[in-house]
Write a structure and sequence with these properties.
The protein has one domain (about 10-214). It has helices at about 10-20, 25-55, 65-75, 140-150, 165-170, 180-185, 195-214; strands spanning about 80, 90, 95-100, 110, 120-125, 125-130, 135-140, 155-160, 185-190. It is of the alpha+beta class and about 210 residues long. It contains seven helices and nine strands; from the N terminus they run αααβββββββαβααβα. The protein is globular and about 50 Å long. Strands 7-4-3-8-9 form a five-stranded mixed beta sheet. A two-stranded antiparallel ribbon has the order 1-2. The chain has a two-stranded antiparallel sheet with strand order 5-6.
């Protein structure tokens, strides 16, 4: 599944799940949470994706951390391109996570390097990566998602889960086989598949960096 969804820092999956479980709740409170689980899950995923990548590229105070952040960014987001300004361009994939169940309101819009001009900040002591500019992730409405999904200028890849429960189940199965998930009709992927593999590669590299930092 690493090839289809981003790998988040350790513990985030459980944090998202623990904040959206409703199965043990009963009565009116449980019914209310059931109706809002999609929005809560989308907001939680968006927040954790932003925080995760911000952590990976935050230089901190040490020179070693600064080099690691630069290496991670260059490996995953920078391409040599003689036709681009200054000879480089940045990975700017746009990913939409949704469910196939109408009314779930679980829609997360992810953009990598959405504004290249903000990727670096000039300071009195040098030029540094801006962690907040690496990835933009936001929870959006069903109407917004429907409009974006049909526009190739706004979305490169759409990953649709069967429903919210399929996402929550996957939280407990981080090594699930994507082929089996597709065969079981739990996940549907449309769009440019090159972005699927790039998305997965970034997630895998993020996991390796976080594991090395432990």
């Amino acid at each position: 599944m690493h090839a289809t969804i981003p790998s988040l820092p350790e513990g985030i999956q459980q944090l998202i799940r623990s904040g959206t479980i409703t199965g043990e709740l009963n009565g009116e409170l449980g019914e209310f949470l059931d109706r809002t689980t999609g929005r809560l899950l989308a907001r939680g995923m968006a927040t954790m994706i932003k925080l995760g990548f911000g952590f990976l590229v935050a230089e901190g105070l040490s020179e070693k951390k600064a080099r690691q952040a630069e290496d991670f960014f260059n490996e995953n987001f920078v391409f040599q391109d003689p036709n681009a300004p200054d000879g480089i361009r940045y990975y700017q994939g746009k990913i939409l996570l949704r469910t196939k169940k109408a009314g779930d309101e679980m829609n997360v819009y992810i953009r990598f390097c959405p504004d290249p001009e903000k990727l670096y900040s000039d300071t009195p002591v040098g030029r540094y990566l801006n962690p907040q500019a690496i990835v933009s992730a936001e929870a959006i409405t069903e109407a917004q998602a429907e409009q974006m999904e049909g526009d190739p200028d706004q979305v490169d890849l759409v990953i649709r889960f069967k429903d919210i429960q399929a996402i929550l189940d996957l939280v407990e199965r981080p090594d699930a086989n994507v082929v089996q998930l597709l065969l079981d009709n739990l996940v549907q992927i449309t769009g440019n598949f090159g972005h699927m593999f790039k998305f997965g590669a970034i997630g895998k590299n993020a996991q390796l960096v976080l594991a090395a930092a432990d």
